[in-house]
Design goal:
This protein is α/β, with parallel strands linked by helices. The protein has one domain: 3-Layer(aba) Sandwich (Rossmann fold). It is 48% helix and 10% strand. It has 11 helices and 5 strands, in the order αααβααβααβααβαβα. It has a 5-stranded parallel sheet with strand order 2-1-3-4-5. The protein is globular and about 45 Å long.
Length: 240
């Protein structure tokens, strides 16, 4: 493991993109074979135990998705104030996991809006874009059927040094999100990509922790500002 970690660090420089792609292929394939959503059951049960102690109010904004949301769960309320939010991210998840747990991480709260960040792991694990899109379409249909006034926000798939090898695929998935939003007045996209790019159009290298994938304090500040800017134009008017 230590050898692999050191090689990934080497691959993180832009001059070693080809090495990064090779190194990440095997663990991505392994991960793709282990996507049983029940692997998150204990995490969801912890959310439910917290709800049993103090149920969040109805009419807030649920935040769900993979580790970029999950590792931000404890910062989200402050970063997005005065918006009322319910952080329910679970790290390592893909779109199919949100679909599986939609009732338990989102619909049960009767939120006015649901924000989803998925696609980062989906593309890295080699999942087909058609599958991810169909799962998202089903999520939106279920939200519309059960909570017809609830809005959906889709974050663009963020760039990262560690996943440069799938960046083109991630951009293609974001384009699909944008097409879905363009066809549905209750679905919005939030751009988090441009905030993470430097003047040369390359992903910034000082916004990640050592794995070059997850955000550090600077990255989380940028992340929070981008999300808040995307939510406020519509959601501020609904805040009590």
């Amino acid at each position: 493991m230590s050898r692999f970690t050191s090689l990934v660090a080497l691959a993180a420089s832009r001059s070693h993109k080809f090495l990064l792609a090779a190194l990440l292929t095997f663990p991505a394939l392994v991960a793709a074979q282990n996507l049983d959503p029940t692997r998150f059951e204990s995490t969801i049960e912890r959310f439910e135990a917290r709800d049993a102690e103090s149920m969040p109010p109805e009419g807030a904004i649920v935040l769900t998705g993979s580790s970029s949301i999950a590792m931000w769960n404890n910062r989200a309320a402050e970063a997005l104030a005065p918006l009322s939010v319910i952080p329910r991210g679970f790290g390592g998840s893909v779109m199919g996991d949100v679909l599986h747990y939609l009732d338990r991480v989102a619909l049960k709260y009767k939120p006015r809006a649901i924000l989803i960040y998925e696609g980062d792991n989906d593309t890295a694990f080699g999942l087909e874009l058609d599958l991810v899109e169909s799962q998202l379409t089903e999520i939106i249909a279920r939200i519309d059927a059960e909570l017809p006034e609830t809005r959906v926000y889709l974050l663009s798939v963020k760039p990262s040094v560690a996943r440069l090898n799938v960046w083109e695929k991630a951009q293609a998935l974001t384009a699909r999100y944008e097409a879905i939003a363009a066809a549905n007045p209750k679905v919005y996209t939030i751009d988090v990509v441009s905030s993470f790019m430097d003047a040369q159009g390359e992903v910034m290298t000082d916004i990640f922790i050592a794995d070059n994938l997850h955000l550090n304090d600077k990255g989380n500040e940028i992340w929070g500002r981008a999300i808040k800017a995307g939510l406020m134009p519509v959601e501020a008017r609904y805040e009590k």
